[in-house]
Design goal:
mainly alpha, globular
Length: 167
Amino acid sequence: MTALFKRAYPDRNPADAMFLDTGLRRGCLNFCRQRARAGGATWNWLFNLEAPFNGGTVPWHNAEEPYVFRNAAYMEAQYIPAVSERVEDEMSGAWTAFAGTGDPNTGEIPAWPRVTADSVPTMCFDRHTDLRVDHDRELMERYPDPPRGGFPGSGKMYAIFGVEPEQ
């Protein structure tokens, strides 16, 4: 598993694998592929910016919100001078573009293709934001099953968008 984790996340400490939220990630990946199969325009993203708190802390659930809403400076444990501002620009720009046009692409991030039924391009927002295609697919396929399937509310999300969860 360590080799798969390092291949998927080469800049991460191997110990970070212990904090990998496979339930959420698998649910998101499955949802994206199913929605693409159903004909929906779908993009996938991952907030991968390690917080400087406590010598380095993996992003927790909802850690991206201060960046999307341009409030990272108020989150002392997360704030990284110059980096936080750039990530705020990238994320808030992508979210604003998506809200306005239905497409998150902007000139501030690499070209971001849609998810297809067979491939999940993922915009990884980090110190150096980049696009990774199926970067953690093998890791998600082989990592031990989480204690719960999908993510909280995933059944509702699948129902709203008219797709069935993968088994």
